[in-house]
């Protein structure tokens, strides 16, 4: 077991080192971009790449955290490891939030400096499509913004393509409810603009996205088990959706009382009781609840309540 634990810790450390390198590069990129807007195309491409890499590394590191926690036996080691893991997760989250804020703030600006032809051709249907392929989109409001950012930079803002070509490309990327929402529109330049308006109103409206995150919080699967893995999943999902709500400028205190009840309803009885004993009297704040939530997760490891 000692060799296995040592190997896992070494692998996790290497992933953390790589994530730290990405974070350092990202901070340098963002700091330079604040001083100068030159080469914005390259900066946004690098930031999107780094965001994807950090999300992947977050999942890999979390997987190692769970496996390592199961192998640790000493209470102090468990507590130290969980605290260090939580700090590193916060380190990654701060960077991903900073990237997303930057990309959102620049959404309505010219994200890419595209070379314009000397004279715009009257017809350009035969123009080659960009090599960059945006992701498919099926109608989830929570992923609309990332889809639109990719489509806008690769297709919508491309001066070489005409609207008919753009519409054909758009339809090839839509699935499910997103595809159904514009199914009846014929392929014309005017209908392309109509399709964009429909998609933005139905899936990209800020209130729709906020509601989607709130619905996701409401639909988190509750548990009556004291297994750490199940309770930690609830914690992670709550943190992800509340962070996204913050990106949408939704103050946690605006929905705090409702969210407190939602979170507590997902947790097992004993766990809720432990949290209630530690929370101050009066109106609960989300930040206090999440801090207490994190402390109780550590307690599950230390006192063995979360044995699988």
Protein model, in words:
The protein is an all-alpha fold. 71% of the residues lie in helices and 0% in strands. It is built from twelve helices and no strands. Helix 5 (163-173) crosses helix 7. The longest helix is centred in the first third of the chain and has 34 residues, at 2-35. The two termini are 18 Å apart. The relative contact order is 0.08. Mean pLDDT is 81; it is low at 110-131.
Describe the secondary-structure layout.
Blueprint: H1 2-35, H2 40-71, H3 75-105, H4 141-156, H5 163-173, H6 176-181, H7 189-203, H8 206-218, H9 228-247, H10 252-265, H11 269-278, H12 286-303
Helix pairs in contact: 1-2, 1-3, 2-3, 3-12, 5-7, 8-9, 9-12, 11-12
Shape: globular
Order of helices and strands: HHHHHHHHHHHH
How many β-strands, per DSSP?
A: 0
Classify the helix fraction into a percent range: over 70%
Briefly summarize what is shown.
The protein is an all-alpha fold and 308 residues long. Helices cover 71% and strands 0% of the residues.
Task: For the structure shown, list the relevant keywords.
single chain, 308 residues, mainly alpha, 71% helix
């Amino acid at each position: 077991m000692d060799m296995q634990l040592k190997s896992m810790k070494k692998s996790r450390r290497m992933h953390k080192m790589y994530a730290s390198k990405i974070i350092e590069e990202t901070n340098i990129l963002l700091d330079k971009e604040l001083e100068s807007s030159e080469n914005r195309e390259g900066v946004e491409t690098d930031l999107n790449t780094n965001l994807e890499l950090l999300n992947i590394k977050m999942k890999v590191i979390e997987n190692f955290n769970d496996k390592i926690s199961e192998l640790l036996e000493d209470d102090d080691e468990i507590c130290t490891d969980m605290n260090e893991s939580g700090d590193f997760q916060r380190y990654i989250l701060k960077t991903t939030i900073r990237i997303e804020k930057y990309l959102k703030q620049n959404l309505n600006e010219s994200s890419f400096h595209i070379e314009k032809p000397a004279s715009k051709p009257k017809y350009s249907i035969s123009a080659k499509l960009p090599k960059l392929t945006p992701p498919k989109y099926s109608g989830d409001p929570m992923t609309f913004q990332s889809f639109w950012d990719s489509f806008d930079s690769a297709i919508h803002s491309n001066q070489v393509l005409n609207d008919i070509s753009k519409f054909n490309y758009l339809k090839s990327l839509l699935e499910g409810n997103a595809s159904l929402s514009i199914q009846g529109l014929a392929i014309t330049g005017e209908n392309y603009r109509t399709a964009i308006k429909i998609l933005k109103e139905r899936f990209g409206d800020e209130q729709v996205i906020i509601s989607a995150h709130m619905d996701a919080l409401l639909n988190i699967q509750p548990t009556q088990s004291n297994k750490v893995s199940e309770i930690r999943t609830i914690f992670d999902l709550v943190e992800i959706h509340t962070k996204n709500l913050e990106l949408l400028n939704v103050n946690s205190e605006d929905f705090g009382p409702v969210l407190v009840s939602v979170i507590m309803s997902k947790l097992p009885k004993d766990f809720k009781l432990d949290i209630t004993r530690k929370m101050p009297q009066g109106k609960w704040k989300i930040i206090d609840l999440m801090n207490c939530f994190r402390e109780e997760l550590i307690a599950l490891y230390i006192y063995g309540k979360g044995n699988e």
